[in-house]
Amino acid sequence: TVDGTKGSPVYEAVNKESRKNFFIGMHNEFVGTRAPRAAAFVCFKAAEEGGEFLIGDGRAIFRDMRQDLIEKLYSRQIRYSVMELPFFGWLDSVPGMMVDPLKGAIKGLASAAINAKVDFSVDLQWGEGGYDNVKMLQARAPSQPPIVTHPVTGDPTWFCNVHSHSSKLRKDREDVYGAERFEDGASQINKSDMFYGDDGSITDEDLEHMDEITMKNVQFVKMTEGDVVLLDNYKCMHGRNVFDGTRKHGVAWFEGWGGESEMKAKYQN
Fold it and tell me: Which residues lie across from 53 on neighbouring strands?
């Protein structure tokens, strides 16, 4: 939390010095099948340079996306890799006949431990490379649609975190901002990627199109001390630019807006 108080409703945004050259791609906030309705982002101290808060209209992104890609993504669904466990390079030195039984035992133990901690089903899959070219276990969330309808207006809106979760797009941004600085254990684990719901890979061409359309609809908001940005999590994506200096921003999440029932009735009539 921002002030370090346990149970505080205001959480610290990604302000760490080690993450200053990490461009946080556009995303909607959700964990598993749960998503907050609204958020208030507050600036306690602006970075000396950069660090803008980014917002993007998910409805506009949906409208601008190639129709064939929308249909492909919606029919095949999407799923995210939400975690990587890159600790199994030692398996390369294990005698061949022991590798598969060991991998099965490790996967079973890790799956039980992770699924006991989260409220959605996680599927673990072995990878033969990963970012550090070692054997790793990749945790994939259940498949889900890339487009949802707004709970009040019924408008279709882009609800797909490919811009922040795609490892290819993050690697492309390293050419502009420098390499990601994964320095601690948590950062080594919290690496993500995105696939089709059937675990198929998304082509570079399609990823680049999604990146182009997303950035076309992004607004850079330079917040100053005391500024608060309210956003509808089902309508508006958010992110953060790279920065230099000291940045202190926080966020509080909410379950809805006052008067939503009346607004919903208005749109339904």
Answer: 221, 240
